[in-house]
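User: Class III signal peptide-containing protein. Structure?
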Amino acid sequence: MDNNAQASAEFILLFGGIMVVVLLAIYLYKRYISDLSGEIQSKEVAEFKNKLGEISELFT
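Assistant: Predicted structure:
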């Protein structure tokens, strides 16, 4: 009986450890995506938009 309880406790600890790693990975991925969205809003994108506006003025 003690072996079954020990196996169950080890399984619960293993599952909890896996959950911690998964949650940490999700948190880091979320930070990476939010940092990436900040780069998309950067100066280069604004310059590209301005160039497209200049080109569109040539055709109108």
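DSSP finds two helices and no strands in the chain. The two ends are 84 Å apart (CA to CA).
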